[in-house]
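Hi team,

Below is the intake form for Heterokaryon incompatibility domain-containing protein from Hypholoma sublateritium. Please confirm the fields before the structure is written into the shared record.

FORM ID: S-0412
PROTEIN: Heterokaryon incompatibility domain-containing protein
ORGANISM: Hypholoma sublateritium
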Amino acid sequence: MATLPVSREKVNSEQTHVLIKALESFIVQMIQVHTLGLMDDNRTDQAHGTEARELIIALQKFINSLIPPQAVLEEENRGAAEKVLEEDIVPVNDEAINKTEKPPPHDQSPLFQRALEETRHFIFNRMPIRLLKFNLDGTEIRLIERGELWRGIASAMELAFDEDSIQTDIQHLISNDYESQAATDLAVSAFCADYQRYAILSHTWLQSAAGEVTYGNWIDQNFDQGYAGYRKLVTFCRVAAAEYGLTLGWMDTVCINKESSSELDESIRSMYSWYETSTVCITYLAGTTELRQMHKDPWFTRGWTLQEMVAPQDMSFYSAEWNLLAPGEGDDKAKPGIMHEIVEATTITEKELLMGGRHVPISRRMQWAAKRQVTREEDRAYSLMGMFDVSISTAYGEGAERAFVRLLKEILNTNTPELLDIVNHGYVRDSKPSFSTTRTSSLIPPSPRDYLWRAESNKIWANCRPKIPINLTPLGLQIPVLLIPGISCLDLPASHPQPPFMPWNEAHRPAISADILKYDVQYRSQFMPAHDKHAVIFAILNHRERSTTIEINADLCYAVTLFPTYFSKSHAKVPEDGTTVSILETERPIILKFDRQTNDPSRMPFNKADLEPHGMYLRTLYFR
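The structure came back. Fields below:
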């Protein structure tokens, strides 16, 4: 900085006088407060602040009076006049003083504002309502709400934000062929990630409810530190801190206020997401002491723990003594020893688990839940919301069937691929619809247990997406189908050519077979006089309708059989569009196989114009 020549004559006498008066006032105030005790402690800081500000303002004006006007210097060698500015003297003010004590504010930084908004959105929309906060050694545990968490994180982000570093990261990504926007997104998200980390506990509640520390217990401090539930809480926090470097954790016993119906409803709807976005899911198996007995743990039998196993990106399994069952880095679900135990306990395969629950066929996911137990019967449905990425309101007291049907109706409202897999189950006598409930079709089961009998091929519904919505209405389940008549093999004369395809599973009555492809028009008379109980119409659900053709899967035709009243001794009565029909009961789904040579059995085409001459019809029906 250039040195300014200062002479006594240049000092503004008025500014000097003001400075001296301000200094005098400040000193007198100090003497009165600290020597004579004329002010109480509450006003002392206020007085100091007022007098100090006046002193600083006077000092600023005094210094400004010392600065000479800009000089205009002539450059001797060139003979050209150029203006030369003396170096500015930075005014002394509160802002300048504070800059030496904390980093500058980032209010004007678009990157910082974006980071704040991204983190704020994550906290209020993806993180639990309430969390346990603790030190890096797991001590000083307390409950905090989202608002308090956000304020603390926002302050920490401001202190840590380094725009130059983030800009460097952005440029590095751009140099590696990232688009500018994508590079910015990644760099900002990487900075935010450190402020979005929390552990989550998966466990089974103690048999004695009094042993768990609930939200009400914690608020009232009404619990015994000798409780097994309290020891579990404390150990969870210690493990999260010591082994994963986290200072936030969530467990359902203490973090949900179940006295608030709105909070309970939000928690149930959000549970899958909370487990999915957690940094680590610490899974405590209270009934397991060593890896080889893990599959016997009660944790695998509970309804809620299904989503707690499927949703997390990183899981760690701990024994009853809080020892890791599979030490080492990475997600425990990917470790062979753990995977073997999971398959043994659940039948969920490694491929299914690693591909994520939401990418597995609907009927298979239902099968996972079929034998799991819940305390409240409605939880059998509520615990599956996240598994199917849907949300329904909770209404304890409505009953298990009504809750489950509401879940299925919500699934039908989605654009889930292979949506028709929702009807892939057995149709048995005890699952007939009760018309006093919302279940108006036997194609809609009353419970996940009905999916224990399902057609196992995952290719049944490939490329099969109905052109109209599949709706559960008061008339029944509305579905477009391809109708094909069939007759029992037992009714055919021995000389009659045998049908070349059979159902893979027996129907409720004797095995039924048919082949309209071989029975062409000349054989239609064989269907006319058939006895009612031995004649059926197959309704094929997994057909694909094109502009001029219909395609079916020759190897995997999923069908239900219509009740035989649609045949008489004189003619075959085919239901018209919009008709409500009933189906025959079958313990397992019926899969038809057409014995016909084709290059691609999954795409056997028929011209629409040829359907009716062969006894086949396209219909949209309501299935009771």
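SUMMARY LINE: The longest strand covers residues 476-488.

Thanks, M.
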